[in-house]
Amino acid sequence: MSTVTTHDTMHDHSHDHAHAMPTGWRRWLFATNHKDIGTMYLVFAMMNLFAGGTMALLIRLELFQPGLQFLRPEFFNQLTTLHGLVMVFGAIMPAFVGFANMMIPLQIGASDMAFARMNNFSFWIMPVAAALLLGSFLAPGGATAAGWTLYAPLSVQMGPGMDMAIFAIHLMGASSIMGSINIVVTILNMRAPGMSLMKMPMFCWTWLITAYLLIAVMPVLAGAITMVLTDRHFGTSFFAASGGGDPVMYQHIFWFFGHPEVYIMILPAFGIVSEVIPTFARKRLFGYSSMVYATASIAILSFIVWAHHMFATGMPVTGQLFFMYATMLIAVPTGVKIFNWIATMWQGAMTFETPMLWAVGFIFVFTIGGFTGLICAMAPIDIGIQDTYYVVAHFHYVLVAGSLFAMFSGFYYWAPKWTGYMVNETRGKIHFWGSMIFFNVTFFPMHFLGLAGMPRRYADYPVQFADFNMIASIGALGFGLSQLYFLLFVALPTYRGGKKAEAQSWEGAEGLEWTVPSPAPFHTFETPPVFNK
């Protein structure tokens, strides 16, 4: 499809590309270029990562020893709630949208995203939402302390900070829906001539499916928090048993959003790893079509497993069995992916540059997270470990070791294309090993704490849990410092200079993004490339 008009003809509104590159603050405020918007998403996500990480360190500081040390329990609960909300909606999701903006047009040979101005709008909603969310600490009574899931009846009883959180989540949801529509239209309509869907890079496939998931479930979350809002202020009683409502209904609606959301936060990570591993194994991705079908089946199955978060609410045994088996079934396509990555590496000419280290590290720790999730899927076991630190360990293995590690792999892999400079390998490896070791020191002991019965979201605990909590807190500090090291000694220096990157920055890298110079010019693919593979 031809995408770009010339100066003298009429401009297609989604492609005002022939203009000179804007400069100064206007370049960022009115950005319509996918690389600029991608950069802003990544910077925004990084800021939220450190905000959420600071909250995590305050939580671990309080839990370093038994007894209340530094924080009031009410403030401790506000921190656990906002840590979750900021990390999910402010760090992980925007970071993946940043990767999508940066890479999808480059990978499919498009000149830009389909709706350039909507792209700008969907970004600028995010800082407003983040300001509302973080500003809710200053509201009378502080931020919401209902947990990141915002369960009724707690969320109905909170102070005005809860309303700020509801408004912030509405804005972030609107941003996600607009961003997703943009990604779907871009991928379906703007691929280079010759690139059929089944020849598309795996990262584009995972994001296409993720975008459909977001469009499907973000309105469900909006419905849930709107009902909380009307219960709070307009006299409805959706979730108040006293008025004929049902607090458990909130959980059903929330998790119908919340479980697909888990896959929204991991599918793009699968896509990144599926780009990195073939490059450094110097082999084509093993079982490409099975990877596509596995990704799609994960997305479809994600809609029928939500109540595995609710085994302890007292559902009939048939319900427990259905959700237990459905959850075990969803492990199959995930396992297919892991075997495909291992088969891609099998007998490959492997080298372990930093992106590959992160990708292999991802497979190792994400698999641990997958197995602990399978254990939570067993209804009888789950009733014992529900709401303990075992669950905290499980989902941090999936979200930190899954989403975050894959993002670091993607950063080290594509940063030469973004900046024009290679990342310093030694510093990258220091960041990797620091993160890998301290991550496991932080979260592995939490499995034992949970199995021994320590509940999550508590500011204090009995003395028998002291040793593992101390180890976890020391690990958390190390992990936080590793990310500070990344910011100061890896990310910022790479944007300033270093060894010049070639167009094809990595030996063995395939794909259209490696055919343009590094850094990728402001306007790429004004004439669509012809893709023949």
UniProtKB/TrEMBL annotation:
Alphabetized, the UniProt keywords read:
Cell membrane, Copper, Electron transport, Heme, Iron, Membrane, Metal-binding, Respiratory chain, Translocase, Transmembrane, Transmembrane helix, Transport
Q: Which residues form the Cytochrome oxidase subunit I profile domain?
A: 19-532
What the entry lists under InterPro entries is as follows: Cyt_c_oxase-like_su1_dom (IPR023616), Cyt_c_oxase-like_su1_sf (IPR036927), Cyt_C_Oxase_1 (IPR000883), Cyt_c_Oxase_su1_BS (IPR023615), Cyt_c_oxase_su1_dom (IPR033944), Cyt_c_oxidase_su1_bac (IPR014241)
Enzyme class, UniProt record, top EC level: translocase
Q: In which pathway does it act?
A: Energy metabolism; oxidative phosphorylation
Role description: Cytochrome c oxidase is the component of the respiratory chain that catalyzes the reduction of oxygen to water. Subunits 1-3 form the functional core of the enzyme complex. CO I is the catalytic subunit of the enzyme. Electrons originating in cytochrome c are transferred via the copper A center of subunit 2 and heme A of subunit 1 to the bimetallic center formed by heme A3 and copper B.
User: What is the designated name of this protein?
Assistant: Cytochrome c oxidase subunit 1
